[in-house]
Specification:
single chain; 106 residues; mainly alpha; 0% strand; elongated; transmembrane helix; membrane; transmembrane
Length: 106
């Protein structure tokens, strides 16, 4: 079976993984953003506060910091892999825990 237009046919007669990557090129980024927001929303609900903007800001900044650590500092992953998503979400969890632990209460 020939490959469709724009696809690269592999030895096995199916589309090569490069084609799959272009179809879902930004899926890992979308999952990381949605995961960071879901963590912020969950943290906001568990603590009983209604400060979703603040928790979203903390979670988002920490997710970017986790990405930076995984990709640029420790070089444990590339943007082609999924490891950086775990680092991003782990940094978000740590930052949210620190945010609620050290936040002043009035």
């Amino acid at each position: 079976m020939p490959a469709h237009e724009g696809e690269i046919e592999s030895v096995f007669g199916v589309a090569a993984p490069q084609v799959w990557r272009t179809r879902l090129q930004h899926a890992d980024i979308v999952i990381a953003v949605l995961g960071a927001f879901a963590l912020a929303w969950t943290a906001d609900q568990l603590t009983g506060r209604r400060g979703l903007f603040a928790t979203s800001l903390v979670s988002g900044v920490a997710a970017v910091a986790g990405w930076f650590l995984a990709i640029r500092v420790f070089a444990v992953s590339t943007m082609d892999g999924w490891t950086w998503v775990g680092w991003s979400l782990a940094a978000s969890v740590i930052a949210l825990a620190a945010f609620f632990l050290f936040r002043t209460k009035r």
